[in-house]
Design goal:
By secondary structure, the chain is an alpha+beta fold. It has three domains: 252 residues, no CATH class; 140 residues, Mog1/PsbP, alpha/beta/alpha sandwich (Protein Transport Mog1p, Chain A), CATH 3.40.1000.10; 54 residues, Membrane-bound Lytic Murein Transglycosylase D, Chain A (Roll). Helices cover 38% and strands 20% of the residues. It is built from 17 helices and 18 strands. It has a seven-stranded antiparallel β-sheet. It has a four-stranded mixed β-sheet with strand order 1-2-4-3. The protein has a four-stranded antiparallel β-sheet with strand order 6-7-8-16, with no helix packed on it. β13 and β14 form a beta hairpin. α4 packs across α8 and α8 runs parallel beside α11. The longest helix has 20 residues. The radius of gyration is 23 Å and the shape is globular. 44% of the residues are buried.
Length: 464
């Protein structure tokens, strides 16, 4: 959760000629700028790393030169998000998250993602998708968000840009075009099938460790990686295996991501189990038991069966009381007589209840420094037990100590060379992760369940 959006930094490859199909007018330019800012807002802004940018620019340039449309221009923005995702806008803007870059293990795998997204642009899929996306609104009302019993809780717990999915046929077409572009540019055409398989294993691991389907912002939510797609990518690669040099460029790629941030940015705070800590803003709180937290650029979100929560931050004038703010209309259907003042660990606060379609809400607002923190707890069936769980959760909101702030550090990727005697288990157990270290190490390095390490090869580990 952050209060500001970082400025975009981008790199480009190919000649500076924009898509001829798009009108060059002020309205189109303005729409592109707005869409770009929406993407930045949803994915934590741009991630600044000149060394990494230079490496990606080189790969994209090779792909452009080998594509069916070498006259088109592409710009790539690295998104500062741990989500595993990549997508394109029809104006040639390519996006890739650092989460995806951290999952890839060589330039060929990264190239497969970019060539796939370029294929959507070349085949005009992205233009169709953008038209659908224009009709998708960001959630503006909690009541609207929770109007459906199944989808509602998920909508509350995501509240992000919803990019319309490509059709099955468009995905397969982009796969075929993309593998061809990568092969002609000299990269190993099997990079696509390897990375698609890693994405599938990564999604399964996240679901197992955090519960439910955690792919709200991931590549697989809009680019379903079915076993059939992996097989088709492999089949396409076998047909093109003799086209180019089949370069993987592993050492250079891993060097470019060495030291890259892994997981959440300190600007957005950290999820540690049920606990959320924000060293920059100086607070922490604990979600109700059984709640799975998801930290996004806009809010801290959580889901458990039959319940959900959202925490965000707003500016409220010091002259406006919290009672007045609760009644100001930012949420509808507040129940009469439910608004009351209270204190949360010494901080001024207020609470109220509200009703929605099939959902009941317990609201808390807490004044902390110059901001007001808004907690929205939702339950399908509000009972004394759920109310008690919400009340216990809000009472965990407190100021972080100086020692806690200093000890809460972001994670980073570190590239190491496997030494004689090193095993998957010994390297994994040294990683700065809370759970499932061995499984995470295998997924991070694209290793099968029974694959062993070889002395001298390079691998990724996670460190503070």
């Amino acid at each position: 959760m952050t209060l500001a959006v970082a400025a975009c930094s981008s790199i480009s490859g190919g000649r500076q000629i924009f898509l001829p199909e798009l009108p060059k007018n002020a309205e189109a330019t303005s729409a592109s700028v707005r869409e770009h800012q929406r993407v930045l807002s949803a994915y934590g802004g741009a991630y600044e790393d000149p060394k990494l940018h230079a490496k990606l620019a080189h790969v994209v340039g090779r792909l452009v030169a080998a594509s069916e449309r070498p006259d088109l221009s592409y710009k790539i923005t690295i998104l500062n998000s741990p989500a595993v995702n990549a997508f394109a806008l029809p104006n040639g803007q390519l996006y890739v998250t650092r989460g995806l870059l951290g999952l890839a293990n060589d330039s060929a795998e990264f190239a497969s993602v970019m060539s796939h997204e370029m294929a959507h642009v070349i085949a005009r899929h992205a233009a169709t998708r953008e038209e659908k996306a224009r009709n998708t609104e960001l959630i503006s009302s909690v009541n609207d968000a929770l109007s459906d019993s199944q989808v509602g809780a998920m909508a509350l717990a995501r509240s992000k840009i919803a990019l319309a999915s490509f059709s099955r046929s468009q995905e397969f077409e982009a796969d075929g075009i993309g593998v061809g572009i990568a092969a002609r540019s000299g990269f190993d055409p099997f990079g696509a099938s390897r990375l698609l398989a890693s994405m599938g294993r990564n999604a399964e691991l996240r679901a197992a460790s955090r519960g439910g389907d955690p792919r709200s912002t991931d590549f697989l939510s809009s680019h379903p990686a079915t076993p059939e797609r992996v097989k088709n990518a492999e089949a396409s690669a076998r047909q093109l295996a003799t086209v180019g040099s089949a370069e993987r460029d592993k050492a250079a790629y891993l060097a470019s991501i060495n030291g890259m941030m892994y997981g959440e940015d300190p600007v957005d705070g950290f999820v540690r189990g049920r606990r959320f800590l924000h060293p920059k803003l100086g607070f922490t709180f604990m979600a109700p038991d059984g709640c799975v937290l998801d930290n996004t650029a806009q809010a801290v979100l959580g889901i458990k069966e039959g319940a959900a929560l959202r925490l965000d931050v707003v500016k409220v004038s010091a002259e406006q009381s919290l009672i007045e703010y609760l009644n100001s209309g930012w949420i509808e259907n507040i129940q009469n007589g439910s608004v009351e003042e209270l204190s949360v660990n010494g901080f001024p606060a207020a609470t109220a209840t509200a009703t929605g379609n099939q959902w009941a809400f317990r609201l808390y607002v807490v004044r902390f420094g110059s901001e007001v923190y808004r907690f929205i707890f939702a339950a399908k069936n509000r009972t004394p037990e759920t109310d008690r769980a919400f009340r216990e959760s809000i009472q965990t909101f407190r100021r972080l100590s100086l020692q806690e702030i200093r000890s809460t550090k972001p994670l980073h990727l570190k590239i190491v060379k496997v030494q004689p005697g090193d095993t998957v288990e010994t390297l994994a157990m040294n990683m700065a992760l809370l759970d499932r270290q061995v499984e995470r190490f295998r997924v991070l390095n694209g290793l099968d369940s029974d694959e062993q390490l070889k002395a001298g090869e390079l691998v990724k580990i996670i460190v503070e």
